[in-house]
Amino acid sequence: MKKLIIATRGSKLALWQSEFVKAELEKAHPGLEVELSVMMTKGDKILDTPLAKIGGKGLFTKELEEAMLRGEAHIAVHSLKDVPMEFPKGLKLGVITKREDVRDAMLSEKYGCLEELPQGAVVGTTSLRRRMQLLSLRPDLVIKNLRGNVNTRIRKLKEGEFDAIILATAGINRLGLASEVRYFSPISKEHIIPASGQAALGIEIVDDAEVEDLVSVLNDADAIVETMVERDFVTLLEGGCQVPIGVNAQVFGDFLHVKAIIGLPDGSEMISEAMSGTRADFVTLGKALAQKVIDKGAKELLERAEKIALSEIF
Ligand SMILES: NCc1[nH]cc(CCC(=O)O)c1CC(=O)O
């Protein structure tokens, strides 16, 4: 193969991620030409509705997948946390890359960190996972919806609509945006558990051995182990992004630890659990943790969370 085509969204973060993969592939395979094919997805067009209401995951990938299935592109680079668990026939998850910083972060023009936010401060996020964990720490906060790509969200912060906003540290670091705001403060995983797959890239590929072989140089063993555990956990809970689920696994040498939290969007009821094992347990640990929270009533709680999310919040 001489030329590999990457289907990509046009947002700054998507372009950064696709350019990164292009550069890495061209470095690993001298002589290979990699080209970006930029397209709009439904998720890029609908900017004013919370994602939980319009179907969430899949919204940002469908058009890219269609291009691959038509043979117009070979791969698509996604933030793994936005990648659905199942793929259309003919496509698969070919690569999981090394993770950036997995933590969420608080950005503000006025306050240095969560602890400094005054009573009743207005915090922007549309993620139910972030809303739940923020309100459980600080029930006094006022959570306001905030959509749009990373750059749009920072612009809205600077326009003064919010005292602070919450974004993934990975996106800020990749785009080099930390200096755009006065305060940028990553939030400890003890306070906010990140989303499944956060900070890794997932490369979706056409089911073709040559393509798979070319892109496989970007696989990261630790990221594969960690995100497998996280994705298994979410799959067993049948949680889309309409439901508040935080789950994060981390390997330390041969040791593997995972913790998760699920609950109601206002943080008033939550189930939180953790488990440890060895690295080799990565095939079972996510499922085992899911069973543990299911035994504590997680499915019923998530059903209530979903009803509340769809009816009351937005
Ligand atoms: N939901 C959108 C999204 N998908 C991936 C990232 C950031 C990068 C990453 O987590 O890999 C973001 C923005 C955000 O949540 O702040």
UniProtKB/TrEMBL annotation:
UniProt GO molecular function: hydroxymethylbilane synthase activity
Catalytic activity: 4 porphobilinogen + H2O = hydroxymethylbilane + 4 NH4(+)
Cofactors named for this entry: dipyrromethane
Cofactor binding: number and manner: Binds 1 dipyrromethane group covalently.
CDD domains, alphabetized: PBP2_EcHMBS_like
Keyword terms, alphabetized: Porphyrin biosynthesis, Transferase
EC number from the UniProt entry: 2.5.1.61
SUPFAM superfamilies in the record: Periplasmic binding protein-like II, Porphobilinogen deaminase (hydroxymethylbilane synthase), C-terminal domain
Sites of S-(dipyrrolylmethanemethyl)cysteine modification: 241
Pfam families reported in the protein's UniProt record: Porphobil_deam, Porphobil_deamC
Domain Porphobilinogen deaminase N-terminal residues, every copy: 4-209
GO BP annotations listed: protoporphyrinogen IX biosynthetic process
Pathway(s): Porphyrin-containing compound metabolism; protoporphyrin-IX biosynthesis; coproporphyrinogen-III from 5-aminolevulinate: step 2/4
Superkingdom in the source lineage: Bacteria
Domain (Porphobilinogen deaminase C-terminal) ranges: 226-293
Record flagged with keyword Transferase: yes
Gene3D superfamilies: Periplasmic binding protein-like II, Porphobilinogen deaminase, C-terminal domain
GO cellular component: cytoplasm
Keyword presence, Transferase: yes
InterPro entries assigned: HemC, Porphobilin_deaminase_cofac_BS, Porphobilin_deaminase_N, Porphobilinogen_deaminase_C, Porphobilinogen_deaminase_C_sf
Function comment: Tetrapolymerization of the monopyrrole PBG into the hydroxymethylbilane pre-uroporphyrinogen in several discrete steps.
Family: Belongs to the HMBS family.
Extra facts: The porphobilinogen subunits are added to the dipyrromethane group.
Name the UniProt record assigns to this protein: Porphobilinogen deaminase
Organism per entry: Sulfurospirillum barnesii (strain ATCC 700032 / DSM 10660 / SES-3)
